[in-house]
Amino acid sequence: MGKDYYNTLGVEKGATDEEIKKAFRKLAHKYHPDKPTGDEQKFKEVNEAYQVIGNTEKRKQYDQYGATFGQQGGFGGGMNWEDFMRATRQGGGGANFDFGVDLGDIFGDLFGFGGGRSRGGRGRGRDIQVDVELTFKEAVFGVEKDLHLTKNNACAVCSGSGAEPGSDRKKCDTCHGQGQVRVVQRTILGDMQSARVCTACSGAGDIPEKRCKHCSGAGVEKSSTSLTVKIPAGIDNGSSIRLTGKGEYGGPGSSAGDLYVAVHVHEDKRFVRQGDDILTEDTISYPQAVLGDTIDIETIDGTKQLVIPSGTQSHQQFRLKGLGVPHLRGSGRGDQYVRVKVDVPKKPSRHAKKLIEELKNELQ
């Protein structure tokens, strides 16, 4: 019976390369023998599956031959288990075998292997989120909102460098400017080399010659920030706006993270949004339904008139073109749909009954 590599990785046959890679990362992390949840046999199976369907050509062969894949050459010149574990013990080393797996990339993310690449530097600060509440009308037409938040910003005294004004930064003596140090751990698989962020410079690769007195060399201070965000017309409840570089500052050698503005739109009893259209209801009398009339309709743009033709049925819907929500992408607006309900008297008078009876005879 042929092996089901898709099932081993827990992905569908039509999964994308990124989905397969993500599944492999997750399972490799779970079953790695050096982990508390480790299982060497399952780790082997996961590795074998990824060697095949993680490579475009091998995957095509596997999909074509299925259970007889092994008879058609199997892994071919691919990496065997011993090669695989030797590469992981060496930290990946940037090894890229013929099935297209870069261990330095995959296991560098999972277990901290350097992969022969410089991973120094702090990268970027933390992303943060704030919530903004809007009225229905503000969401339809857009609005500007002032935000006030307290977060980690670059130190106002040293401008985020961590160095006392007038002094400079120098190469870190611990990591020699790499931002990371290599350590060797003894495991059941042998000595395993990995890279860790340098604690002396926090990954920046350099340190202040003289630390800023205000932030103690961190380059970061918690302070209040005020900014104005423009909410675009047509935004919907649950949407978010990304403000690049407006998140928290991570310290010397880093850039600021992003600020996400989560939008919450209050409901409006008068209007219901459906995509870019607005739905409303109105009530007309029985004579208006029979004879027709012109009535006032409340819209997001104010009061408009709607012509009710004679013979209108209850729950009949009318369209007011261009009175809906502006399209968030592109020009124009949606429409407003008005559903009318005919108000039939529950206890009509004798005179009304007589007139209705006459009308009934007339219509027949």
From TrEMBL:
Q: Give residue ranges of the CXXCXGXG motif repeats.
A: 155-162, 172-179, 198-205, 212-219
Gene for this chain: dnaJ
| Record-stated family | Belongs to the DnaJ family.
Annotated source species: Candidatus Magasanikbacteria bacterium CG10_big_fil_rev_8_21_14_0_10_47_10
Which residues are noted in the entry as Zn(2+) 2-binding?
C172, C175, C198, C201
Pfam families to which the protein is assigned, alphabetical: DnaJ (PF00226), DnaJ_C (PF01556), DnaJ_CXXCXGXG (PF00684)
Subcellular localization is given as: Cytoplasm
Q: Which GO terms describe its biological process?
A: DNA replication; protein refolding; response to heat
GO CC terms of this entry:
cytoplasm
Q: Record-annotated residues binding Zn(2+) 1?
A: C155, C158, C212, C215
What does the entry's cofactor note say about binding and number? Binds 2 Zn(2+) ions per monomer.
Q: Where are the zinc fingers (CR-type)?
A: 142-224
Query: What GO molecular functions are on record for this protein?
Result: ATP binding; heat shock protein binding; unfolded protein binding; zinc ion binding
Q: How does it assemble?
A: Homodimer.
Descriptive protein name: Chaperone protein DnaJ
